[in-house]
Amino acid sequence: MSDSVMASTSRRGQGLAVLGRRFRLGTILGMEIGIDASWFFIAILVTWSLATGVFPEEFAGLDPLTYWIMGATGALGLFASIVLHELSHSVVARRLGLEMRGITLFIFGGVAQMGGEPSTPRVELFMAAAGPIASIVIGSAFLGLSHAAGSWAAPTAVTGVLQYLGYINLLLAAFNLVPAFPLDGGRLLRALLWQSRRDLRWATRVASQIGGGFGLALIVLGMVAVLGGNLVAGIWYALIGLFVRGAARMSYQQVLVREALQGEPVRRFMHPDVRVVRSDTSLASLVEDFIYRDYHKMYPVVDDGRLTGCVTVDQVKGVPKNEWAAHTVGEVASPCTPTNTLQAGSDAVDALALMRRTGSSRLLVLDGERLAGILTLKDLLQFLATKVELEGA
């Protein structure tokens, strides 16, 4: 039930497309830990299934409240186990020079959000292996504690939860070692294929095809389970299968996109003619002459050819409408940040990753401190569509 998948920010995530609203929990080892809203659903479902099914069946004779406490504790332990699984990916990746931005738990498990793709097969191999190894170590530790607790005549509720967490971590490791991309086992397979032929695109295509086949097998297994009367398990098999199949296909497409944009400078795609405003422009003029005509959310503020800041619709909304004529853009504008600007010589792949990470479809392109142009997501997509049409990628 707890499929754990790594995804790079430039992918979905590059966060994953299934992720929605995210709640920040805190920071561990410099990495932000968050929960997608979908996780609350799985947490309730896991607690319920443990309290009403798994634990009563395995450890009969306890009172209902004890089963619910065991279920909640087991769900929290599963939560912590997945965080440690993903944290191991992140720690190893950072040691190998790959940027890691955080970890998000969602309905199918966890996502370690990477800043980009692994640079070599070795990096991918070590990073992918870290998660299952961590789960095996954690599972073995819990089973050892369960055995020790039994020897010390600990309450059945304690040994039962420890035993469950031991087996679920081993199951997590086994599932992730399936050689189906983008599971950890699929990443290990891709690393080996990549090493053998030095062709990331081919390696990703093969691993993704296996991942798609595994996803289809899970969907079929789900249908069989439903027909056999196991509705809940069947639905979960089918949902996880759909997710794995879609993620495998998306992962290959992302490699194609990276190959198409790799090495292409941003200046090739940018538009040099940009609608700019001066800092002494009134907010009333900004609204009437710019926002109501272009419908853009943000405008660069340029004085004497130099970018001095950015003004957004939200900043204008912070001023009462009857005062717009009395205030200027310079009074509300703020400095442009790395989240909406980049240099003209930057790689187009980095620009696309920045757009995905921030949700912005327009970036200001700078040449030093001078505004050189503007880059839109539409420009990049049009280039990719044309390249696919010409080359049949």
The total count of helices amounts to 12
Count all strands and give the number: 10
Estimated structural class:
alpha/beta
Lateral arrangement of strands in the main beta sheet: 1-5-4-3-2
Proportion of strand residues:
5-15%
What is the H/E order? EEEHHEEHHHHHHEEHHEHEEH
**First-to-last CA distance:** 35 Å
Rg, rounded, reads 25 Å
Mean pLDDT level: 83
Level of helix content? 55-70%
Number of domains: 2
Low-confidence stretches: 1-19
Biggest sheet, in brief? 5 strands, mixed
Q: Which descriptor suits the 3D outline?
A: globular
Structure description:
With 393 residues, the chain is of the alpha/beta class. The chain folds into two domains: 7-261, no CATH class; 267-391, CBS-domain (Roll). The protein is built from twelve helices and ten strands. The chain has helices at 38-58, 64-95, 121-151, 156-176, 184-197, 200-227, 231-261, 283-294, 313-317, 329-332, 348-358, 377-391, and strands spanning 7-8, 22-28, 31-36, 100-106, 109-114, 298-303, 306-312, 341-343, 362-367, 370-376. Strands 1-5-4-3-2 form a five-stranded mixed β-sheet. Helix 11 (348-358) links the parallel strand 8 and strand 9. The longest helix has 32 residues, at 64-95. The two termini are 35 Å apart.
